[in-house]
Amino acid sequence: MKQLFLLFSHKLTPFQELDAKESLGVTHFVKLPQELQSLWSNIPPTLENLSDYLTPLKEYISDKSKDGDIVLIQGEFGGCYEMVNFVKSLGLIAVHSTTKRDVVEKKVDGKVVKTSVFEHVRFREF
């Protein structure tokens, strides 16, 4: 059973789930416990170093993962860098989702309103 740990602040779209199953061979999705999700989604910008701050996440992934598992890592750049290096040191596979952006422009009350729509394309290994 190949697991995909979800180390990001969004919910997977149905297309992302299907892609993970088909292209990565994922059979089980692992969401972070709420306290770890909150930790990941709220990395303080004032910290000089993230190593200690991310220790609970590292311990969780280290305890729950096995060889061949994959970790989807997206979020604050420094946190991503730290966690990509960490999961690779465990022999796990670190990936991120690539997207295509379509910009839609509409006139609303005489003003131009731009809306960006992001669509998942594929998972890419770090």
Q: Would you kindly provide a written description of the structure presented here, covering whatever features stand out?
A:
With 126 residues, the protein is an alpha/beta fold. It has one domain (3-125). It has four helices and five strands. The chain has a five-stranded mixed beta sheet with strand order 2-1-3-4-5.
How are the SSEs ordered, and which strands pair?
Elements: E1 3-7, H1 14-24, E2 28-31, H2 34-41, H3 55-64, E3 70-73, H4 77-89, E4 93-108, E5 111-125
Parallel strand pairs: 1-2, 1-3, 3-4
Antiparallel strand pairs: 4-5
Give a quick summary of the entry:
The chain is of the alpha/beta class and 126 residues long.
Can you tag this structure with a few keywords?
single chain, 126 residues, alpha/beta, five-stranded mixed beta sheet, 33% helix, globular
Number of discrete helical segments: 4
Q: How many distinct beta strands? A: 5
> How many domains is the backbone divided into?
1
Query: How confident is the prediction overall: mean pLDDT?
Result: 95
Instruction: Give the termini separation.
Output: 22 Å
Which bin fits the share of residues in helices?
Answer: 25-40%
What is the SS-derived class? alpha/beta
What amount of the residues lies in strands?
25-35%
Residue runs with pLDDT of under 50 for 5 or more positions: none
Physical arrangement of strands within the biggest beta sheet:
2-1-3-4-5
Query: Taking Cα atoms only, what radius of gyration do you get, to the nearest Å?
Result: 17 Å
Q: What is the succession of H and E elements? A: EHEHHEHEE
Give a short account of the largest sheet: 5 strands, mixed
Shape: globular
